[in-house]
Amino acid sequence: MLLASLVEHLEYTTLQGDSNTNISSIAFDSREVVPNALFVAISGFTVDGHTFIERAIELGATAILVERDIVIDAPVTVLKVADTRYAMAHASARFYNNPTEKLNLIGITGTNGKTSTTYFIKSILEQSKRTVGVIGTIGAMVGNQSLKTKSTTPTTPESLHLQHMFADMVDTGVHDCVMEVSSHALSLQRTAASRFKSGIFTNLTPDHLELHNTMEEYFEAKAMLFDLTTDYNIVNMDDEYGRRLATKIASNPAKLVTYGIENDATIRAADIRQFADYTSYVVHTPTGSVAIQTNLPGIIYVYNSLAAIACAYCNGINLDQISAGIRAVKSIKGRLEVVYQDEERKIIVDFAHTEDSLEKALSTLRPFTKGRLILVFGVYAAPGKLGSGKRQAMGTIAGQYSDIAIVTSDNPKDQDPDAIIAEVSAAVQAAGGMHRGIVDRREAIQYAIDISERDDVILIAGKGHETSQVIGKTEIPFNEAEIVNDIMSGK
């Protein structure tokens, strides 16, 4: 494809060369450059792609996309744009023949609930015999088959990989794609060239403030999704930021559809009944009402299933298929997942990594815990004062809702795990809770099991589906379900 065709809808300046050069591939990682490639120089947080231009040319790049004036002493074409991330998104979409124009693309954003909402929607759509693609925190798949991807980016891949995945889905006959859309992805233009038919907002609580600095910036980043939609914007009206969003986007072309329990909404839940292993309710929609059972307990999964029901309503799915689709989801990896249970105890793994999600997980388990509720958790937050609020808030929740909190490491990366544990433990103590600090996460899990007694419930929170832990710059295998079962089998 000609370079000029890839960038025809972008504003750019030709610094040197011919924009009619032929392009065989696109790369933003110089190690993936092949002959006749377009190399996109991205200014990252720790690495500047402009410093790898020479290496990209050595590997065969014939065109370079930059975002600053630069002199390159080589016979290549150099185009300058204002934002190479934005330009890469649009060039990638063009390179793969604009695949999202051929998909019913559904985007889900919010702090918590994106993954479970994704899987509820997938299940409902499959009840109507559709082939569904999924892109999100747990991975990418078509139906039940994992989709191969080069992306190592959590939740939402870089735009180049994303457009490639969309194209693969189109080629395999996918009609619907349900995707988790992170605030990082929106801020960093990964979804800039994606055509969403529907956008869903779940909730907003403090998280990722190392990138956004304030809740206002975080909210504005999430709101970007709803300017990319064409058909429907689906919003949780029981969330403070959801109500703000509904007002903000009321005049957008996409139709506003709301859901909730407490406030007036298009899709509402009533007669909610909670049990240890499931929750039932009746959902009221403009086309009628139907009984719903979600096999994931707790109010949070009422909200997440309501979001999925609202999406199904927008897609014309009938109530019987909606009810069957929600009931068909037996479990979701790392979401209140029971990884071990016997007559003595129950051990649960959950992805709860914010104060809101931790509170909801603990408050869901509390009414059905006959013995003690033992919590194992760590806190990953921005270093220093920026992340201090999250560390203290999660410690407070742990102190209020658990009988004993074992504070350990999450992904400490380059931070001092002892300092993090000390700050969180102080908050647990200030909230009146019992606590123990253990840096090694496996030892912390072992300790929780050792002290557990009959009828106790152990919640291991923070990592959920993740199968590794990052300590310093090293990523080590760490699968909590396997660790628990190894301990319980005496390995």
Please give a structural write-up.
The protein has 16 helices and 24 strands. The protein is an alpha/beta fold. α4 packs across α10 (299-314). It is globular and about 75 Å long. The chain starts with a helix and ends with a helix.
CATH superfamily of the largest domain: Mur-like, catalytic domain
Write down the CATH topology of the largest domain. UDP-N-acetylmuramoyl-L-alanine:D-glutamate ligase
Query: What CATH architecture of the largest domain do you see?
Result: 3-Layer(aba) Sandwich
Main pleated sheet: 11 strands, mixed
Q: Brief overview, please?
A:
The protein has 491 residues and is an alpha/beta fold. It has helices spanning 3-6, 53-58, 84-95, 114-127, 159-171, 183-187, 209-212, 215-223, 240-248, 299-314, 319-328, 355-365, 385-401, 417-430, 441-451, 480-488, and strands spanning 13-16, 25-27, 37-40, 63-66, 77-80, 104-109, 132-136, 139-142, 145-146, 176-180, 196-201, 229-236, 255-260, 267-274, 279-285, 288-294, 337-341, 345-350, 373-377, 404-407, 434-437, 456-461, 468-471, 474-477.
